């Protein structure tokens, strides 16, 4: 990724940015990198293991990162949608950062894996990708690699769950959500979870019990997923972050599909497109209000 | 420590007899949601267990400190609040086949659980539990148990340890509890371990030792000296503050206490796992947070494990299992951080003394 490294070197040495948020080789696979010294830009890489959504690090509440100064961030097309979301929801301004977009040929689900991209190893989100050639950027680097193999796992699981009876669905989700320990890693890794005070942590009134009981785990997950409706960019970082391996990406995708069906809205790299639940439209079907 | 032999059949009978006697037997098994993962779960028969396959996702601490537990119930009555304590007597349980790092963690945490207050719930379960660990042959590039004074064959915290051999296991009987458990199931005094096992242990030990050399005694002092070192400003940038590390850790033991109302009159007080990695852990009611950013929170985790706990209890609050590094969505790596600060151990302090 010579062009990426050269660009980062230029941005840092000219003083355009103070930090480049990208990817590097870590002790266990690829991990996020925060490069502040131009001499360190040779560490930057981009390959099929770069699955993390670095837009999460642009959250203005991460003060130890904003303290570094203006950032350039390396994004895939999918991640660029999160950057657009943060701009749309007025968390950051477009001119407050430099966007380095990379053309993407799909990523592995697991950034510590050394596997090639196959129907088993590719992130299931890549199968529906329409943004391998990103549109939101200041700099676009790399050649467009061929499309990755489609991992059908998630769409098959969603189809199977749709066929279940309500009771079976409840059993399915209870089986997973009973493992939830309410660490909220899903929230912390999510680029779109940026609330100053999460509803899960309000004590007066207490919307959700803080303890990891079946009832509270269901309420927490339902609340988070619903709050992401029309906002989630389907990066699946919630699922990857979950230490209990709860398939949160299924819910994320299902909600995204529902929003598309109801409102004709898909997560987009255009920050000017209003969020479906953030606008009033007289032609809104309102078919759920009877 | 005496060595005996137990055949697979006899071990199977032991598990069956325990289950029949209403003793909960917990062992590593293939996870219900993912066949490639291992969890500690109750078993009904030995065949349910998958011993020595890989490190379970979570440590075994949840069988002593559950993710959530009711510590009292209350009812608001006209005369005032009526409190009902929950029973602290624990039911007998056997943990079969945990890795030595998970078992040692329990004994390390015992110290804080009996420090200013003896935690009845923790010790109730500790006393009601017999631990039969399994010699570890699962070490990978992320393990560093030997660096913290343990090892693949460490018997610390175990009542007995199984060492695989032809036709069954050599059982190392360590405590009277372990001897009582195996008394009617083992045969033949074994004088020495199978030479092949000795060799396997030596190899496993060597593999882990290559990951990290032993942490020197003065490391704690060096960490304290470098409390304000600029490295802390860059170490935790990629950390999300999610606390996944603490949830899988065999020695992280912090908990939160909350009251939950069932309705207007009744409620429960629970204790739940908590983690110093979350912003709310030290958030004051005033809005002030003494650990304002993730840099300080991450430093706290490292300091607590390698400096604060050693200075208070004389030992490192880490068993080198490596789970925190395996589970971290941000790619943080405890061994790497320890390595960076070890380099400073002999160097002069930067950024002033604490």
Description of the molecule:
The complex is a heterodimer of chains A (290) and B (354). With 290 residues, chain A is α/β, with parallel strands linked by helices. Chain A has 2 domains: 2-141, no CATH class; 153-278, no CATH class. Chain A is 31% helix and 10% strand. Chain A has helices spanning 2-13, 63-66, 77-88, 153-163, 166-177, 185-189, 214-227, 237-241, 248-263, and strands spanning 19-26, 29-35, 71-75, 97-102, 139-141. Chain A has a 5-stranded mixed β-sheet with strand order 2-1-3-4-5. In chain A, strand 3, helix 3 and strand 4 form a beta-alpha-beta unit. The longest helix of chain A has 16 residues, at 248-263. Chain A is globular, with a radius of gyration of 19 Å. Chain A starts with a helix and ends in a 27-residue tail after the last helix. The relative contact order of chain A is 0.13. The model of chain A has no long low-confidence stretch (mean pLDDT 94). By secondary structure, chain B is α+β, with helices and mostly antiparallel strands. Chain B folds into 2 domains: 2-211, no CATH class; 219-343, no CATH class. In chain B, 31% of the residues lie in helices and 21% in strands. Chain B has helices spanning 8-20, 100-113, 120-127, 176-182, 195-211, 219-225, 232-235, 244-248, 294-313, 323-327, 334-343; strands at 2-7, 24-30, 38-43, 68-77, 80-85, 93-96, 129-134, 160-165, 168-173, 187-189, 255-261, 266-273. Chain B has an 8-stranded mixed β-sheet. In chain B, helix 6 (219-225) crosses helix 9 (294-313). The mean pLDDT of chain B is 92. Classes of the chains: A alpha/beta (290), B alpha+beta (354). Chains A and B meet through strand 2, helix 2, helix 6 and helix 8 of A and helix 8, strand 11, strand 12 and helix 10 of B.
